Amino acid sequence: MSEQPKKPVVFSGIQPSGLMTIGNYIGAIRNWKALQEDYDCVYSVVDLHAITVRQEPAALRANTRSLLALLIACGVDPEKSVFFVQSHVPQHCELAWLLNCYTPVGELSRMTQFKDKSEKHAGNVNAGLLDYPVLMAADILLYQTDLVPVGADQKQHLEMSRNLAVRFNNAYSETFKVPEPYIPPVGARVMSLQDPARKMSKSDEDACYVALLDAPDAIARKVRRAVTDSVGVIAYTEQQPGVRNLIDILSAFSGRTPERIVADFAGRGYGDLKEATAEAVISVLVPIQKEHARLMADKAYLDGVMQRGALQAQRRAQRTLDKVRRKIGFVPLPR
After folding, report:
1. CB of 22 within 8 A of CB of 249?
2. 3-class DSSP assignment, residue 234
3. DSSP secondary structure letter of residue 28
4. CA angle 260, 263, 269 (to 5 degrees)
5. d(Cα 161, Cα 15) in Å, to the nearest integer?
6. Alpha-carbon distance 190 to 206, whole Å?
7. pTM to 2 decimals?
8. Rounded to an integer, what is the distance from CA 7 to the centroid of its chain?
9. pLDDT at 58
10. Cβ atoms within 10 A of the Cβ of 253, count?
């Protein structure tokens, strides 16, 4: 009997820092579910990354459990994927320290996200903020990752992961796989409901985004108030960014193409488009919200998911870490 070929490894992580929006859902979370079928997926709630910005401890704990439940409610299957909380796997921190010793400070200080966050959080420009990309590289390289789903704001960090892998491999022989970016086949960039020139962000005012756990009446209210224009024609063009954004959202939640939507709404007004968009979003999110509530009430199940996921991730991560320690020249612990 021939051995089944190994599936390519995909790693992806998401921070438990506040609310998840429909932008997070369309851009990342729903792809996690789809990728499980064809790839060996390693998914993490990356709480270590979250603390580069000050977090209220009780809120961080609550957000971590809530995000874990939300991802499962959205279709991430802990039986199909390695699914864990980052801080439960200490190998991430150890490899990050080792990789630090192969990372020039100049490279870190030139990272676009470090510059942006330093301006935004000028009172807390900590070493973790500077070192964030090295921890991200450790996340990825620990699992001998083939592919990393990336958005535009993470491409530079993935490039650093690739550079570190190549640098270490050249110094010590083949140790890490050099990861490649994975670009999802579909998925529009969801923009702010009040400023369609900017990406939807959970750090904006409440009216600018739809959160995955928003109540149906809140979703409908936000979509009805979304910025459009005075043109009065439903068209999918760069000249009408507000209308285009609504069409992208409706397309993502209904499965219809933007072209089909434009044809369906020919001769109709923006009010009709907004109502249809709100209904499509609500029809997808309400079942997710119900499942999230059920999972949050089952503490034993979530604890079990975290325990199993941590053990699976630790076993895989340790194999890579042992190899790295040996290549560097550390004395192994006598057994």
Report:
1. yes
2. coil
3. I
4. 120
5. 19
6. 15
7. 0.91
8. 21
9. 96
10. 22
Q: How many CB atoms lie within 10 A of CB 264?
A: 15
Query: Could you report the per-residue pLDDT of 173-194, keeping only the tens digit for each?
Result: 999 999 999 987 655 689 999 9
Q: Which amino acid is at 205?
A: E
The CB-based long-range contact list for 261-265 (8 Å cut-off, 24+ gap) reads 261/234, 261/236, 262/234, 262/235, 262/236, 265/234
pLDDT at 185: 67
Diameter over CA atoms, the chain: 77
From residue 217, alpha-carbon distances to 74, 75, 213, 214, 282 in Å are 21, 24, 12, 8, 9
As a whole number of angstroms, the distance between CA 216 and CA 99 comes to 46
Closest CA to 19 of 205, 157, 277, 272: 205
Which amino acid, 225? R
CA dist., res. 174 & res. 32, Å (int): 29
Amino acid at site 20: M
DSSP string covering 143-163, please?
Answer: TT-SEEE--GGGHHHHHHHHH
Who's near 316: CB < 8 A, 6+ residues apart? Answer: 42, 82, 142, 143
Among candidates 174, 163, 148, which has minimal Cα distance to 42? 148
Q: Are 234 and 265 in contact (CB under 8 A)?
A: yes
- Active-site positions? 117, 199, 202
CA-to-CA distance for 75 and 306, rounded, in angstroms? 16
What is the SS3 assignment for 200? coil
